[in-house]
Amino acid sequence: MADGSDTVNSIVQGHRAVQYAGMKRFLRYFCSGALFGLLVACAPVTMYYDAGAEVSRLETDLLNCQVSAAQNVPVSNQVRRDPPQYYPARRVCRRDGSCYTTGGFFDPGNVYTVDVNAGLRARVTNQCMEERGYRQVSIPRCSGDISRNAIPAVTRVLPELTPKSCIISNKDKTWQILNNSG
Fold it and tell me: Are 114 and 140 in contact (CB under 8 A)?
């Protein structure tokens, strides 16, 4: 049985410590995801491009290349695990001077899957798109002033890009490429 309140508290506190470690992991992933979302909103858009091509043709060519790549380089998921971590026992003292020791515990690490063929499949897709005349480009997002002043539209034919070209992402997942003259 338990040898006193410190032993019982160490079991209970150890459980809280497990919850605390899980919460730290959740916050780390949540915060990195939220930050990632903010960075993506400002990051340039990387896309396949062939000036003069219709966007509908681009989308069809990309889908056909992705399907071909998926058939030639199928998904190959592997299950992996983050390394376990040991959280040692801690001595905690209250304001009234009483102290107790929390139990140490292991966090076994997250289990996740990795598609080990994803990189090769992307290279096969790139090769297919290059064979069809496309190249990958990064187009900066339009500034807030340009976006607010632009007449809403959807790009249907890919224009020639200039050093002042920028892109506006529409809420319906379409986009508009502008060639700003000033």
Answer: no
Which amino acid, 134? Y
Report yes or no: 132 and 41 within 8 Å, Cβ to Cβ: no
Strand-pairing partners, residue 175, are 169
Helical (H) or strand (E) element with 99:
strand 99-101
Q: State the 10-residue block means of pLDDT for the chain, 182 residues long.
A: 44 45 57 50 90 97 98 96 94 93 91 96 98 97 90 94 93 90 52
* CA angle in degrees (0–180, nearest 5) for 60-125-121: 130
pLDDT at 42: 78
Handedness of CA 149, 154, 159, 161 (dihedral sign): positive
Buried b (16+ CB within 10 A) or exposed e, 43-52: eebebbbbee
pTM of the entire structure? 0.64
DSSP state of 129: H
Question: What's the maximum distance between 2 C-alpha atoms anywhere in the chain?
Answer: 81
